[in-house]
């Protein structure tokens, strides 16, 4: 094994909890109230008082006043500019803690803690001071309503990123005008990784000096308060077919175009007239009561119509997934001839599972007849040849009509060309005249949005060098979910859509295997298999102190879970890229993954004998290949064992994976090279 434990090297030998009197912020004062994390819950240093059943609130407040005065004098500032960290919240917290203590829910004290717990605590303590971090946390309780992830985790904000040197972003010599056309965009219209990729790539290209815009449906559920400078720009009639008395009739749909900025990225939002249709209405991105195929065919056409009317001539139209796949067909066979001359088209395939099947008459929702594209060299679905009627496949058409086609990792690209990942579309991708325009570009993640040093969703920020906040995040999650508070128990997390692609049976098995091995498991998932996990949570695993299965979608909670976890489980049956393992590593959480697609590109087993030692992805997690339970056990068992037996080695691994550069920098450079190859000037 290559991962032999390295003793205590790397841990600060003399580090221990040191209480401090004055806080780092100029005008705030922290009391020396936490004396270590002895029982998983912090103990107040106001020992005599907090041991009493009725803490003297007035006494504490009077003491606060005295301290305020002292600091004001020391700093030469008015007393009311001094804030004291020990406040009503602390008092309530103290009470809460006493309650928990009384109920015996706190973990055992460090004197009683098993040696591994002490090692994990010591690791956390040795890597920095915990008291400042701890003092600002509003510790959660299981009985809290609304739940803890719906309110700020700290009553005193803390940002470890302040003062950090700004990241230097290389500027590209040529500047392109790029418009992404997409059904999803993080954070306002996110269902999965597509949304993250659009926002991350758009931001990275903006930073490199390009002009970038995103065209997105103006879904009814978009939170308008998160769209800066939202303004109505123009109204236009988008040509559109509509079913009327069982007949497709060609007409148009009045459409409003809005402009604004989402997460700093300029956006163009298109909204159909809701007096005439219910397209994009409802409280979710997908699954409204409208016809989805009709909605995105309309949207693809409306985007081109908008560009023509507004006179915009971007260099690149970057489209994503089947939802926008009609666009290249409409562009090259119509709009390019109508005067929209400059754009060239890049298609990114995020998941080949849904190829956009479309009957010929349905294509007429775009306002153009489907027969125009029903030939083998265009969009005809080859599986339907000889059927009556023959169908179209939007993704096939887009692969043929786009100037360049990418998918989201090199391995998934290979699997699409030679394995089964692309299904019948493999023959289209592998056609000699198309093969050269297809490549895999590994996704990055938005390292500003996923930054444990500055993440406002976390109870305690942390970095690879100041790592102690991670242990506090774990304790916070354990407390908030009412689990056993124990730093020594390996915590396996899984954040996922609950669909067959994600390996539902292995997630289920992973839960039980983790429990058998003395670990803890937290699942945050939503999707088709919600019911299965909900019944586990409410039945067999109900009240189990080591497992919580949360069948919901919640972004802030996902941040806390990534930060709190020791391991993230990603047992996907196939995975074009996978973002959860990248995000988890950014938060020091070690991936346990099935080696497929992008997971195979980004996670290499710590025990593998071959690998590229110079690669940042080398020896950074645990992998398995088979789709059976035994294969998962092989990876998971080793992970849990290493965590227990070699805590210091594990801590270093966690810190090392945090330093991996998974930003969009490299991937954006690859996309810009691609744009350069196909752009028309
Ligand atoms: P996919 O796009 O196939 O769902 P990815 O790994 O590419 O998978 O991206 C998943 C994204 O969705 C990640 O940002 C992940 O954190 C997020 N996510 C998935 N499920 C949930 C959930 N239940 N709650 C919050 N975020 C989730």
From TrEMBL:
Pathway: Glycan biosynthesis; starch biosynthesis. It comes from the Eukaryota. Gene3D superfamilies: Glycogen Phosphorylase B. It catalyses: [(1->4)-alpha-D-glucosyl](n) + ADP-alpha-D-glucose = [(1->4)-alpha-D-glucosyl](n+1) + ADP + H(+). Keywords: Glycosyltransferase, Starch biosynthesis, Transferase. It is an enzyme of class 2 (transferase). GO terms for biological process: starch biosynthetic process. Residues 22-56, 95-130 are annotated as: Disordered. One of its GO terms (molecular function) is alpha-1,4-glucan glucosyltransferase (UDP-glucose donor) activity. Residues 35-55 have a biased composition (Polar residues). The keyword Glycosyltransferase applies. InterPro entries: GS/SS, Starch_synth_cat_dom. Residues 106-126 have a biased composition (Low complexity). Its EC number is 2.4.1.21. Residues 177-424 form the Starch synthase catalytic domain. Belongs to the glycosyltransferase 1 family. Bacterial/plant glycogen synthase subfamily. This is starch synthase. It comes from Apatococcus fuscideae.
């Amino acid at each position: 094994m290559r991962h032999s434990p390295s003793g205590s090297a790397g841990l600060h030998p003399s580090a221990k909890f040191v209480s401090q009197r004055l806080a780092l912020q100029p005008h705030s004062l922290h009391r020396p109230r936490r004396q270590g994390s002895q029982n998983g819950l912090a103990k107040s240093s106001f020992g005599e008082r907090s041991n009493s059943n009725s803490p003297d609130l007035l006494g504490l407040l009077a003491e606060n006043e005295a301290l305020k005065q002292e600091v004001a004098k020391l700093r030469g500032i008015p007393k009311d500019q001094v804030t004291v960290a020990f406040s009503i919240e602390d008092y309530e917290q103290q009470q809460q803690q006493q309650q928990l203590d009384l109920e015996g829910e706190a973990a055992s004290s460090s004197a009683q803690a098993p040696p591994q717990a002490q090692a994990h605590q010591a690791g956390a303590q040795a890597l920095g001071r915990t008291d400042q971090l701890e003092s600002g946390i509003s510790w959660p309780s299981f009985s809290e309503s609304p739940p803890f992830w719906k309110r700020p985790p700290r009553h005193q904000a803390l940002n470890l990123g302040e003062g950090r040197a700004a990241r230097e972003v290389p500027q590209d010599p040529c500047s392109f005008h790029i418009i992404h056309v997409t059904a999803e965009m993080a954070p306002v219209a996110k269902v999965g990784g597509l949304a993250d990729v659009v926002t991350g790539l758009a931001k990275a290209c903006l930073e490199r000096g390009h002009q970038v815009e995103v065209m997105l449906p103006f879904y009814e559920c978009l939170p308008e308060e998160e769209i800066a400078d939202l303004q109505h720009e123009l109204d236009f009639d988008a040509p559109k077919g509509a079913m009327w008395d069982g007949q497709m009739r060609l007409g148009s749909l009045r459409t409003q175009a809005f402009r604004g900025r989402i997460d700093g990225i300029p956006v163009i939002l298109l909204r159909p007239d809701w007096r005439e249709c219910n397209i994009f209405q409802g409280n979710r991105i997908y699954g409204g009561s409208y016809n989805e195929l009709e909605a995105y065919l309309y949207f693809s056409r409306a985007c081109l119509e908008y560009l023509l009317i507004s006179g915009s001539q971007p260099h690149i139209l970057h489209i994503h997934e089947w939802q926008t796949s009609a666009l290249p067909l409409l562009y090259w066979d119509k709009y390019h001839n109508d005067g929209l001359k400059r754009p060239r088209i890049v298609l990114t395939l995020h998941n080949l599972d849904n190829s956009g099947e479309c009957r010929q008459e349905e294509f007429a929702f775009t306002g153009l007849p489907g027969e125009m594209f029903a030939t083998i060299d265009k969009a005809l679905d080859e599986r339907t040849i000889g059927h009556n009627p023959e169908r179209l496949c939007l993704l096939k058409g887009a692969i043929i009509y786009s100037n360049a086609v990418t998918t989201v990792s090199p391995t998934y690209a290979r699997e699409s060309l030679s394995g089964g990942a692309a299904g019948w579309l493999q023959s289209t991708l592998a056609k000699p005249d198309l093969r050269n325009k297809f490549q895999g570009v590994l996704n990055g993640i938005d390292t500003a949005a996923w930054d444990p040093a500055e993440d406002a969703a976390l109870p305690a920020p942390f970095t690879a060098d100041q790592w102690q906040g991670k242990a506090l995040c774990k304790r916070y999650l354990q407390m908030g979910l009412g689990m056993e508070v124990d730093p020594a128990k390996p915590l396996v997390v899984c954040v996922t859509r609950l669909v067959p692609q994600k390996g539902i049976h292995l997630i289920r098995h992973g839960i039980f295997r983790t429990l058998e091995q003395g670990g803890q498991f937290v699942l945050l998932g939503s999707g088709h298999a919600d019911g299965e996990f909900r019944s586990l949570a409410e039945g067999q695993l109900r009240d189990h102190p080591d497992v919580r299965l949360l069948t919901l979608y919640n972004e802030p909670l996902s941040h806390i879970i990534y930060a709190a976890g020791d391991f993230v489980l990603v047992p996907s049956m196939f995975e074009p890229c996978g973002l959860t393992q990248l995000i988890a590593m950014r938060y020091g959480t070690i991936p346990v993954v099935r080696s497929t697609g992008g997971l195979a590109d980004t996670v290499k087993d710590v025990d593998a004998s071959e690998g590229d030692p110079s690669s940042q992805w080398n020896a950074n997690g645990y992998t398995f290949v088979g789709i059976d339970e035994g294969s998962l056990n092989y990876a998971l068992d080793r992970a849990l064992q290493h965590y227990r037996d070699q805590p210091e080695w594990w801590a270093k691994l966690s810190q090392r994976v945090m330093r991996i550069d998974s930003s969009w920098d490299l991937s954006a450079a690859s996309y810009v090279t691609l744009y350069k190859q196909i752009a028309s000037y």
